[in-house]
Amino acid sequence: MNIEQSRNAAFGAARGTEQRTATAGGGAAGPAETFYITTPIYYPSGRLHIGHAYTTVAADFVARYKRQCGIDTWFLTGMDEHGLKIARAAEAEGLDPKAFVDRAFRQISGLWKVLEISHDDFIRTTEPRHKQVVQALFERLYRQGDIYKGAYEGWYCAPCESFWLERQLVDGNCPDCGRSCELVKEEAYFFRLSRYQDRWLEYVEHHPEFIQPLSRRNEMISFVKQGLDDLCVSRTSFSWGIPVAFDRQHVVYVWLDALTNYISALGYGQPGSLFDKYWPADVHLMAKEIVRFHAIIWPIILMAAGVELPKQIFGHGWFTADGEKIGKSRGNVIDPVVLVDKYGLDPIRYYLLRELPFGADGNYTEARLIRRTNVDLANDLGNLLQRTLAMVWRFAGGKVPQPDARMEDSQRPLIAAAEKAWRAYADCLEHLDLSNALGAVMDLVGRANKYIEEQLPWDLAKDEAKHPQLRTVLYDLLETLRIAAVLLKPALRRAPDALLGQLGLDPAGLDFRLPQAARWGGLPAGIAVRRGAPLFPRIEVTPEGPEGIPQAANAAAGTKGVPGSETPAVAPGVISYDEFARIDLRVAEVLRAEPVKGADRLLKLQIRVGGSERQIVAGIAQHYRPEELTGRHIVVVANLAAAKIRGEESNGMLLAASAEGKLCLVVPEAAIPSGARVK
Ligand code: ME8
């Protein structure tokens, strides 16, 4: 059974949630058999951008991981279609609001297809199934006295769809987004938030995992401690919303409407619905600016309605551009479809999931995206596969060799490294530490690359007595790659299967279920490995080339400034970190050196950089004899554009220091494998 088939196969995996505190959906005692994860339902007021892709790809990673663990998972996303903001956006285009949101629905569904999001349901707040739950909830709260009628006089921020009191404004503007607010004076219904303040504080105190990360929890607690005002929950000055069933002059406040999606989509109120199976949600994911609505208003609505609270509200950080939140209304959006077209799906998903600690803010730059692809995926993972397969062809006839049964596990360090990687990965995912979960896999990949340098398989091959050891080394490298692919499977969409295919496996017939699939020894000996295309071709970046960063950043971002640079303005003669980071400095081993005919200053060097070999030409013939160089480790610029020097191809440049007619090579100060990064 493969992962797609195992989606609904609940087999009651008890995950020891009892002992954890701040875990995703943790805290509840007893085994967790189902997992329900949500993203915010997005406003279709403008095109969705990389920020929306971030939350949705993150939720997708977690959902796919849970399914891969055999847990019965439900993943919900959707669209928040009502409210003043949408009504105005539609009007600005001369469209009826329904026609406007229908068009947006097609666009947004298309985006999730491109990103291969595996949601189980997509809720639209204009659907009857949703409207009916919102109306019933509103009426229930009214009948029990938690909603009452009054008059609202205060300020409204349409972009955030939030009410503010005069004293809360900052310089007359919305304290959340800084934009101007409008004065609202109308009859309205109010929800008695204030009545539940103490109950909320007590609940949050006893459930440390409820709001995460901790910094957001603390913010929310101090916000509530300042005192909660009752919340205005209806509007009469526009009509694009769900009418209050018993007073049709009013439409339900868009946030009450929107938050209810998390239960309306499950069929709340209908016997035998998905609600009985999946509620309470294990985690509501979102960025920090809307944690307040989810962590305070939503739980209090649920408390009032007698519904169990979600297990966790997780507010991650923002992708920023030049330090400012990327946002539809700021006009600095980056279109994920353009990026996928340009770089492929896996590099984008990997970048989104790996780049920022989940919870922190961070700048988006195309230069970083390229670097992540080149360094982690192309160099570390891609090269490990290529080097290993090349050795399997050369030393083992292209078949997965049988490891030497006489070798103890303690003599095979990759076994322990793979076990450690799995544990770290699973632990990180349970805590929604998505970036470090992938980091654990990449550490394993790094360990395997290092293992090649330690074992020197080409030397083992020279000594027949060492052939059993050679076969074991090769098996261990292949098995490490298999485990890395299994662990990358929920995050990436193409590379894991492609990698497994090159190991000689048929991904369609594999059982990816965790933790079994991550256990050592799953790769059968004797199968034939296959030659395949590189998993991740390096993205070539040349200063002036057509694929250079300036064009890349402009195409996707439409931003001004120095695209791809994190610091737009630097003093003349000073370079930004990003500019420095574009130079790929590597340790290289010199395999051979020889003079270049007719050029008495030049030597031609064959070097190995990690798993690949190349030639460089260097002007050092008057300082070094060729035989002095063989076997030495030097430092090279590995991503310098190729050049022909005196008719010889040169793919890189070595580093040397020179002064007063003297020249010496820059070399690593201690033994370190070729391919090691210099930074
Ligand atoms: O707030 N960085 O919808 P919305 C990271 N409809 N995440 C970002 C981001 C960025 N720069 N920009 C957007 C709404 N996001 C309401 C939600 S839920 C009941 C109602 C992501 O279209 C992030 O998840 O403004 C953020 O919380 C969400 O998009 C806001 O989407």
Overall pLDDT level: 89
- What is the CA-CA span between the terminal residues? 45 Å
Give the ligands present.
ligand ME8
Overall helicity: 25-40%
Tell me, what's the shape?
Answer: elongated
> What does the largest sheet look like?
6 strands, parallel
Structural class: alpha+beta
List the total number of helices: 21
Biggest sheet strand order reads 3-2-1-12-13-7
Number of strands: 26
Indicate the low-confidence ranges by residue numbers: 1-23, 25-31, 544-570
Structure notes:
With 679 residues, the protein is an alpha+beta fold. The protein is 38% helix and 19% strand. The protein is built from 21 helices and 26 strands. The strands form seven sheets. It has a six-stranded parallel β-sheet, with helices on both faces. Strands 17, 18, 19, 20, 23 and 26 form a six-stranded antiparallel β-sheet that branches. Strand 17 and strand 18 form a beta hairpin. The chain is elongated and about 90 Å long. The chain starts with 33 loop residues before the first strand and ends with a strand. Residues 1-23, 25-31 and 544-570 have low confidence and may be disordered. Ligand ME8 binds next to strand 1, helix 1, helix 7 and strand 12.
Keywords:
679 residues, alpha+beta, six-stranded antiparallel sheet, binds ligand ME8
Topology:
Blueprint: E1 34-42, H1 50-68, E2 72-79, H2 84-92, H3 97-114, E3 121-124, H4 128-143, E4 147-157, E5 162-164, E6 182-191, H5 197-206, E7 211-212, H6 214-225, E8 231-232, E9 234-235, E10 243-244, E11 247-252, H7 254-259, H8 261-264, H9 274-278, E12 283-287, H10 291-305, E13 313-316, E14 319-321, E15 324-325, H11 336-343, H12 345-355, E16 362-363, H13 366-396, H14 413-430, H15 434-455, H16 457-460, H17 467-488, H18 495-502, H19 549-557, H20 577-581, E17 585-596, E18 599-609, E19 612-618, H21 626-629, E20 633-637, E21 643-645, E22 648-650, E23 653-654, E24 656-659, E25 662-665, E26 677-678
Parallel strand pairs: 1-2, 1-12, 2-3, 7-13, 12-13, 14-16
Antiparallel strand pairs: 4-5, 4-6, 6-8, 9-11, 10-11, 14-15, 17-18, 17-20, 17-26, 18-19, 20-23, 21-22, 24-25
Helix pairs in contact: 2-3, 11-12, 12-13, 12-15, 13-15, 13-17, 14-15, 14-17, 15-17, 17-18
